[in-house]
Write a structure and sequence with these properties.
8 helices, 73% helix
């Protein structure tokens, strides 16, 4: 009787896709959602949009699970989906980029210095073309290897190398002009 009462209060959803998808997507979410949230936050600049993008990416993975050819590449699929979601969010956006997330700091002076430096870098980063910004964020923030970046961006390794190089040069030029 007690189990029936619990089942009525918290009914299990009908699982059309299967326990395999539920388990794998849940584990991927536990292990990678925070990092993907940070990636999205770096790309779009605000937490609510970043959260929406990541949630949609994981939901898309769950929904498409039966149709995935290479299930071992599920993380790459989600990462690509996050990047695509960020691109879409930026296209829909009417307001300019605003970096809301600031890292923890140790003193008021350090907060001012780190905060201003970070704002300058984030503003400069968002002046870059989307592809260069993605390559730089994935490489230096996400600490991904060239091959992983290429898979996430759906480009070749050579394109990743040249895009990253051009992005670093452009970012340095923008920051130099602002000083």
């Amino acid at each position: 009787m007690e189990a029936e009462a619990v089942e009525l209060m918290h009914p299990r959803p009908v699982d059309r896709i299967g326990d395999d998808a539920t388990h794998v997507v849940t584990e991927l979410y536990r292990g990678h959602a925070l990092g993907l949230m940070r990636l999205a936050l770096m790309m779009v600049g605000d937490r609510p949009t970043a959260e929406d993008v990541v949630q949609e990416a994981f939901f898309g993975l769950y929904r498409r699970w039966p149709h995935l050819r290479d299930r071992a590449s599920a993380l790459t699929y989600v990462r690509s989906s996050v990047l695509n979601g960020c691109r879409s969010a930026l296209r829909r956006r009417r307001l300019p980029f605003r970096a809301e997330h600031l890292p923890p700091v140790w003193s008021a002076e350090a907060a001012a210095m780190v905060g201003e430096d970070r704002r300058q870098v984030m503003a400069a980063l968002h002046r870059l073309p989307v592809r260069q910004r993605e390559a730089l964020v994935l490489r230096y923030f996400g600490e991904l290897a060239e091959e992983e970046i290429a898979e996430a961006m759906k480009v070749s390794r050579g394109t990743v190398k040249s895009t990253t190089s051009r992005g670093v040069a452009a970012l340095a030029k923008i920051l130099e002009e602002e000083q």
